[in-house]
Amino acid sequence: AVVSTQSTGSSEDESENVNNDSSDVYQWCISAAHIGSLTKLDVSILEINQEHFEFNVTSEVLLAEVKVCVPWTEIVKLESHFSNDLHALIIHVEELWAKGLIDQLKNALSRQIPLELDPKSAVMYKRVISMEFVKEPPQAHITMMGYYLDKHHTVKMDRIEACSAAHIRDLLPPVDHFDSHMDTDVVEQDTRTLLVYPPPPGQATITLTYADLECLKPEEFLNDSILDFYLKYIHHELISPSLREKTHLFNSFFYKALTQPIKKEAKNDPVTKRMTTSERMHQQVKRWSKSIDLFSKDYIIVPINEHQHWYLAIICYPWLEAPHYDKPDTWKPANKRSDRSEQDDGIDEKDIDGVLSKNKEHSTVPPISCRPCILMFDSLVANGRNKVVNNIRNYLAVEWKTKADRGPRTFNKNNFPGIFVEGPLQENFCDCGVFLLQFVEKFFESPITDYRFPVERKDWFSQQDITKKRESLRKLIVRLGPNRQFTEASQKR
Fold it and tell me: Is 92 an active-site residue?
């Protein structure tokens, strides 16, 4: 049995590629593969299992079909991009293993041609193995890759990165090389500095290059630099000083650092061995809040990227220990309460479709002006993220204990629930980063005033607003420029 992505094409033959059985093997349909300088290889199926990537290649320069198995242990990094016009996976491998594969391919050549697969090559596409996929929906690739990597914990998630189309195209061989197998010049990205924000003497600055602007083009995936820049811009210039003081902004690397696998040397450390899993995770990011009291804040912004997808968590009122109700003495319930609690228990945390807080409180409790909770915003799925909520809640519990002069406190799904905000959903699979930025901006622009379940904000913005946002971001970055200084107005706001 295999798990494979499903094509939405009209051809009946394409639907035969689908097999919905669940298994430990996952298959992708490949349109072309490239192994360093050996390009445009015919590959029908890329198979992924717990041990390796496996595919068979044929070419007019090969005497026979060659089976290639890339062990997970030899993979240094995976890079990918899935949008409407580009579906590609880049495999970076260990240097010694690459030499062995080249020797294997040389023995199968029908004629003598130079072969190169070298991570240190001056020509970018000769450093990697690259796969181009059939034109299937990007959602299928994102969902299934995420499902597989999450299911098999042996796969190190810190070795897969979502990249811009421009970066991935630099790692693919140029079209005119497919038939000639000749060297081409390396295409370099424009790494000149365009903007440093905030400008000196600002701290924790974000540097944007001219190449970063490429990801603001339509159907491009927003990178972390653009995302971190605009979040910082919102925090510095679009909200009032009093609200800014009550808001803490983690950058896009925080959650990845929190959840990264424990390093081998740390596992063997006597002190670390005595820690719980939550304490070990907190240990990896404790410096991030060293000079900050998170429990003095009303809001903590946590951007998250998993499986090539951006989404958002906002921690609300962590200093509170219970909800604040509006006019509880005069409010009357519409009917007897019959809700159900957050469905953490019994749900596989690897299932992104698990339900968060689905209590229907509007008819059972008075309006809630503020409550300790974790708001989840996701433009691609309609619910879920239990694992993320648990990780953040456990982080807060350890953070509370590590600060001095605080009494005991528990953090659980009842007193610190996760709430999935029902907001606008994206109509493609490359705008998730823009949606995240729009969620944060609207959160401050049109604040939530009632925290009863469910929280709905489906009318916050439209797809047209998202399309315009890319261009407005580009114009903003160009306008600020490398020599821009804070205006007097923005400092006083």
Answer: no
